[in-house]
Structure prediction request, 293 residues.
Amino acid sequence: MNGIEFRNVTKRYGADASAPLAVKGISFEVPEGTLTTILGPSGCGKTTTLRMSGAKKADAAARARNALKGVGLVDFDERLPSELSGGQQQRVALARALVLEPAVLLFDEPLSNLDARLRREMREEIRAIQQRLKLTVAYVTHDQSEALAVSDQIIVMDHGVIAQRGAPQDLYGRPQSEFVAGFMGEATVFPAMAQPDGQVLLGPLTITPRHAVPTGIVKVAVRPEAWRIGAAVGVEAVLRKASYLGSFYEYSFETALGPVFVVSGDLARPLAAGARTTLGLGDHGVSVVAQDS
Prediction:
Protein backbone atom coordinates (compact mmCIF):
# COMPACT_ATOMS: atom_id res chain seq x y z
CA MET A 1 0.00 0.00 0.00
CA ASN A 2 1.40 3.41 -1.01
CA GLY A 3 -1.24 5.46 0.76
CA ILE A 4 -0.95 7.16 4.14
CA GLU A 5 -2.71 6.01 7.30
CA PHE A 6 -2.84 7.79 10.65
CA ARG A 7 -4.35 5.66 13.41
CA ASN A 8 -5.06 7.36 16.74
CA VAL A 9 -1.92 9.53 16.46
CA THR A 10 -1.03 11.84 19.33
CA LYS A 11 1.83 14.34 19.64
CA ARG A 12 3.07 16.15 22.74
CA TYR A 13 6.09 18.48 22.72
CA GLY A 14 8.44 17.64 25.58
CA ALA A 15 8.75 14.65 27.89
CA ASP A 16 6.51 16.04 30.63
CA ALA A 17 3.23 14.10 30.71
CA SER A 18 1.44 17.31 31.70
CA ALA A 19 2.58 19.16 28.55
CA PRO A 20 -0.35 20.09 26.31
CA LEU A 21 -1.12 17.89 23.31
CA ALA A 22 -0.52 19.44 19.89
CA VAL A 23 -2.28 16.56 18.11
CA LYS A 24 -4.99 14.64 19.95
CA GLY A 25 -5.58 11.09 18.79
CA ILE A 26 -6.40 11.74 15.14
CA SER A 27 -7.13 9.03 12.57
CA PHE A 28 -7.45 9.40 8.80
CA GLU A 29 -6.31 7.89 5.51
CA VAL A 30 -4.92 9.37 2.31
CA PRO A 31 -5.88 6.83 -0.38
CA GLU A 32 -3.20 5.87 -2.88
CA GLY A 33 -3.00 8.24 -5.84
CA THR A 34 -5.07 11.02 -4.27
CA LEU A 35 -4.39 14.45 -2.76
CA THR A 36 -5.61 15.19 0.76
CA THR A 37 -5.29 18.68 2.23
CA ILE A 38 -4.93 19.23 5.97
CA LEU A 39 -6.55 22.62 6.47
CA GLY A 40 -6.94 24.83 9.48
CA PRO A 41 -5.95 28.07 11.21
CA SER A 42 -2.48 28.72 12.57
CA GLY A 43 -1.68 26.59 15.61
CA CYS A 44 -4.33 23.93 14.96
CA GLY A 45 -1.78 21.08 14.62
CA LYS A 46 -1.67 20.57 10.86
CA THR A 47 2.09 21.08 10.39
CA THR A 48 2.88 18.96 13.45
CA THR A 49 0.80 16.20 11.85
CA LEU A 50 2.71 16.45 8.57
CA ARG A 51 6.15 16.38 10.20
CA MET A 52 5.48 12.93 11.79
CA SER A 53 6.37 11.20 8.43
CA GLY A 54 9.84 10.22 6.91
CA ALA A 55 11.74 11.17 3.67
CA LYS A 56 14.48 9.77 1.38
CA LYS A 57 17.52 11.50 -0.24
CA ALA A 58 18.32 12.18 -3.89
CA ASP A 59 21.63 11.10 -5.38
CA ALA A 60 21.44 11.17 -9.22
CA ALA A 61 21.92 14.21 -11.52
CA ALA A 62 20.06 12.52 -14.37
CA ARG A 63 17.01 12.05 -12.21
CA ALA A 64 17.28 15.70 -11.16
CA ARG A 65 17.25 16.84 -14.80
CA ASN A 66 14.24 14.63 -15.53
CA ALA A 67 12.48 16.09 -12.53
CA LEU A 68 13.20 19.63 -13.74
CA LYS A 69 11.84 18.70 -17.15
CA GLY A 70 8.70 17.38 -15.49
CA VAL A 71 7.97 20.78 -13.94
CA GLY A 72 8.72 22.76 -17.12
CA LEU A 73 12.33 23.79 -16.35
CA VAL A 74 14.33 22.26 -19.22
CA ASP A 75 17.99 23.45 -19.27
CA PHE A 76 17.62 25.27 -15.97
CA ASP A 77 19.94 22.95 -14.02
CA GLU A 78 22.93 25.32 -14.24
CA ARG A 79 21.04 28.39 -13.02
CA LEU A 80 21.72 29.91 -9.61
CA PRO A 81 18.76 30.41 -7.25
CA SER A 82 19.20 34.19 -7.63
CA GLU A 83 18.67 33.82 -11.38
CA LEU A 84 15.22 32.25 -10.94
CA SER A 85 11.88 33.93 -10.45
CA GLY A 86 9.69 33.09 -7.45
CA GLY A 87 7.58 30.72 -9.51
CA GLN A 88 10.66 29.02 -10.94
CA GLN A 89 12.09 28.57 -7.44
CA GLN A 90 8.88 26.87 -6.39
CA ARG A 91 9.11 24.57 -9.41
CA VAL A 92 12.68 23.67 -8.42
CA ALA A 93 11.48 22.81 -4.94
CA LEU A 94 8.83 20.57 -6.47
CA ALA A 95 11.43 18.93 -8.73
CA ARG A 96 13.67 18.26 -5.71
CA ALA A 97 10.81 16.34 -4.14
CA LEU A 98 9.93 14.47 -7.34
CA VAL A 99 13.53 13.38 -7.96
CA LEU A 100 13.16 10.96 -5.07
CA GLU A 101 10.44 9.17 -7.02
CA PRO A 102 8.45 9.03 -3.79
CA ALA A 103 5.42 6.87 -3.17
CA VAL A 104 4.18 9.65 -0.90
CA LEU A 105 4.73 13.41 -1.21
CA LEU A 106 4.24 15.91 1.63
CA PHE A 107 3.68 19.65 1.08
CA ASP A 108 3.77 22.16 3.95
CA GLU A 109 2.40 25.58 2.86
CA PRO A 110 4.24 25.31 -0.51
CA LEU A 111 2.76 28.51 -1.99
CA SER A 112 2.89 30.85 0.99
CA ASN A 113 5.53 33.23 -0.44
CA LEU A 114 4.00 33.73 -3.91
CA ASP A 115 1.72 36.44 -5.26
CA ALA A 116 -1.88 35.64 -6.21
CA ARG A 117 -1.25 34.80 -9.87
CA LEU A 118 1.75 32.57 -9.17
CA ARG A 119 -0.19 30.83 -6.38
CA ARG A 120 -2.93 29.97 -8.86
CA GLU A 121 -0.46 28.78 -11.49
CA MET A 122 1.53 26.66 -9.05
CA ARG A 123 -1.47 25.04 -7.41
CA GLU A 124 -2.68 24.02 -10.90
CA GLU A 125 0.82 22.70 -11.65
CA ILE A 126 0.96 20.67 -8.43
CA ARG A 127 -2.48 19.20 -9.01
CA ALA A 128 -1.67 18.32 -12.63
CA ILE A 129 1.61 16.60 -11.66
CA GLN A 130 -0.09 14.72 -8.83
CA GLN A 131 -2.76 13.40 -11.16
CA ARG A 132 -0.33 12.63 -14.01
CA LEU A 133 2.09 10.69 -11.81
CA LYS A 134 -0.70 9.28 -9.59
CA LEU A 135 1.14 10.48 -6.47
CA THR A 136 -0.21 10.11 -2.96
CA VAL A 137 -0.05 13.62 -1.50
CA ALA A 138 -0.68 15.16 1.91
CA TYR A 139 -0.86 18.93 1.54
CA VAL A 140 -0.95 21.43 4.40
CA THR A 141 -2.37 24.93 3.95
CA HIS A 142 -4.38 27.56 5.81
CA ASP A 143 -5.82 28.88 2.52
CA GLN A 144 -9.37 27.62 1.94
CA SER A 145 -9.46 28.41 -1.78
CA GLU A 146 -6.16 26.60 -2.30
CA ALA A 147 -7.51 23.54 -0.50
CA LEU A 148 -10.72 23.58 -2.52
CA ALA A 149 -8.78 23.84 -5.80
CA VAL A 150 -6.32 20.97 -5.37
CA SER A 151 -7.94 18.37 -3.13
CA ASP A 152 -9.70 15.05 -3.46
CA GLN A 153 -10.25 15.15 0.31
CA ILE A 154 -10.01 17.98 2.85
CA ILE A 155 -9.38 17.46 6.56
CA VAL A 156 -10.20 20.53 8.64
CA MET A 157 -8.36 20.60 11.97
CA ASP A 158 -9.15 22.67 15.05
CA HIS A 159 -7.07 22.65 18.24
CA GLY A 160 -5.38 19.34 17.45
CA VAL A 161 -8.47 17.37 16.44
CA ILE A 162 -10.28 16.73 13.18
CA ALA A 163 -13.33 18.98 12.92
CA GLN A 164 -14.56 17.48 9.63
CA ARG A 165 -13.28 15.57 6.64
CA GLY A 166 -14.70 14.99 3.18
CA ALA A 167 -14.72 16.06 -0.45
CA PRO A 168 -14.30 19.80 -1.14
CA GLN A 169 -17.97 20.08 -2.11
CA ASP A 170 -19.02 18.53 1.21
CA LEU A 171 -16.84 20.82 3.34
CA TYR A 172 -18.02 23.93 1.53
CA GLY A 173 -21.67 23.06 0.96
CA ARG A 174 -22.45 20.84 3.96
CA PRO A 175 -20.38 21.89 6.98
CA GLN A 176 -21.19 19.92 10.13
CA SER A 177 -20.23 22.48 12.74
CA GLU A 178 -20.20 26.21 13.38
CA PHE A 179 -16.40 26.24 13.22
CA VAL A 180 -16.18 24.54 9.81
CA ALA A 181 -19.00 26.67 8.42
CA GLY A 182 -17.30 29.87 9.50
CA PHE A 183 -13.81 28.80 8.45
CA MET A 184 -14.65 27.64 4.94
CA GLY A 185 -15.34 30.44 2.47
CA GLU A 186 -15.83 33.48 4.73
CA ALA A 187 -19.31 32.45 5.84
CA THR A 188 -21.06 34.65 8.40
CA VAL A 189 -22.75 32.62 11.15
CA PHE A 190 -26.06 33.81 12.63
CA PRO A 191 -28.20 32.43 15.48
CA ALA A 192 -31.56 31.17 14.25
CA MET A 193 -34.56 29.16 15.46
CA ALA A 194 -35.55 25.73 14.16
CA GLN A 195 -39.32 25.21 14.17
CA PRO A 196 -41.23 21.96 14.91
CA ASP A 197 -42.22 21.77 11.22
CA GLY A 198 -38.54 21.58 10.21
CA GLN A 199 -38.24 25.15 8.93
CA VAL A 200 -35.58 27.50 10.30
CA LEU A 201 -36.33 31.18 10.92
CA LEU A 202 -33.54 33.71 10.46
CA GLY A 203 -35.22 37.05 11.19
CA PRO A 204 -37.81 37.51 8.42
CA LEU A 205 -36.19 34.76 6.32
CA THR A 206 -37.37 31.14 6.22
CA ILE A 207 -34.83 28.44 5.44
CA THR A 208 -35.44 24.77 4.60
CA PRO A 209 -32.45 22.76 5.89
CA ARG A 210 -30.95 20.02 3.74
CA HIS A 211 -31.16 17.66 6.72
CA ALA A 212 -33.37 17.37 9.78
CA VAL A 213 -32.38 19.58 12.71
CA PRO A 214 -33.68 19.48 16.30
CA THR A 215 -36.17 22.14 17.34
CA GLY A 216 -34.57 25.11 19.11
CA ILE A 217 -31.62 27.42 18.66
CA VAL A 218 -29.32 26.58 15.73
CA LYS A 219 -26.75 28.44 13.67
CA VAL A 220 -27.11 29.45 10.02
CA ALA A 221 -23.93 29.95 7.99
CA VAL A 222 -24.36 32.21 4.96
CA ARG A 223 -21.64 32.62 2.38
CA PRO A 224 -21.12 36.07 0.78
CA GLU A 225 -22.33 34.91 -2.65
CA ALA A 226 -25.62 33.51 -1.23
CA TRP A 227 -27.23 36.90 -0.57
CA ARG A 228 -29.69 38.31 -3.13
CA ILE A 229 -29.74 42.12 -3.19
CA GLY A 230 -33.18 43.69 -3.68
CA ALA A 231 -35.13 40.50 -2.92
CA ALA A 232 -38.91 40.83 -2.63
CA VAL A 233 -38.78 39.06 0.73
CA GLY A 234 -35.73 39.82 2.80
CA VAL A 235 -34.13 41.64 5.69
CA GLU A 236 -33.81 45.43 5.45
CA ALA A 237 -30.23 46.56 4.94
CA VAL A 238 -28.18 49.76 4.73
CA LEU A 239 -24.94 49.75 2.75
CA ARG A 240 -21.98 50.97 4.81
CA LYS A 241 -19.07 50.20 2.47
CA ALA A 242 -18.61 49.20 -1.18
CA SER A 243 -15.38 47.92 -2.73
CA TYR A 244 -14.85 47.39 -6.47
CA LEU A 245 -12.63 44.39 -7.26
CA GLY A 246 -12.83 44.30 -11.05
CA SER A 247 -15.07 41.30 -11.68
CA PHE A 248 -17.28 41.79 -8.61
CA TYR A 249 -18.22 44.13 -5.77
CA GLU A 250 -17.78 43.52 -2.05
CA TYR A 251 -20.50 45.12 0.08
CA SER A 252 -20.73 45.55 3.84
CA PHE A 253 -24.33 46.01 5.02
CA GLU A 254 -25.82 46.81 8.40
CA THR A 255 -28.98 44.81 9.17
CA ALA A 256 -31.13 43.74 12.10
CA LEU A 257 -29.23 40.44 11.97
CA GLY A 258 -25.93 42.27 12.39
CA PRO A 259 -23.18 43.07 9.84
CA VAL A 260 -23.59 41.22 6.54
CA PHE A 261 -20.81 40.74 3.99
CA VAL A 262 -21.99 40.30 0.38
CA VAL A 263 -20.19 39.51 -2.87
CA SER A 264 -22.09 40.62 -5.98
CA GLY A 265 -21.26 40.05 -9.64
CA ASP A 266 -23.80 42.68 -10.76
CA LEU A 267 -21.43 45.25 -12.23
CA ALA A 268 -24.15 47.10 -14.14
CA ARG A 269 -26.00 48.28 -11.04
CA PRO A 270 -23.47 49.18 -8.33
CA LEU A 271 -24.67 50.47 -4.97
CA ALA A 272 -23.29 53.50 -3.18
CA ALA A 273 -22.71 53.87 0.55
CA GLY A 274 -25.93 54.76 2.31
CA ALA A 275 -28.16 52.87 -0.12
CA ARG A 276 -31.14 51.05 1.41
CA THR A 277 -32.27 47.68 0.09
CA THR A 278 -33.40 44.21 1.14
CA LEU A 279 -31.28 41.06 1.33
CA GLY A 280 -32.77 37.65 0.57
CA LEU A 281 -31.11 34.24 0.30
CA GLY A 282 -30.46 32.00 -2.69
CA ASP A 283 -30.58 28.21 -2.77
CA HIS A 284 -26.84 27.67 -2.46
CA GLY A 285 -24.31 28.81 0.09
CA VAL A 286 -26.63 28.52 3.11
CA SER A 287 -26.07 25.81 5.77
CA VAL A 288 -27.81 25.06 9.07
CA VAL A 289 -25.46 23.68 11.74
CA ALA A 290 -25.58 22.92 15.45
CA GLN A 291 -24.02 25.34 17.90
CA ASP A 292 -20.42 24.58 18.85
CA SER A 293 -20.10 23.59 22.47
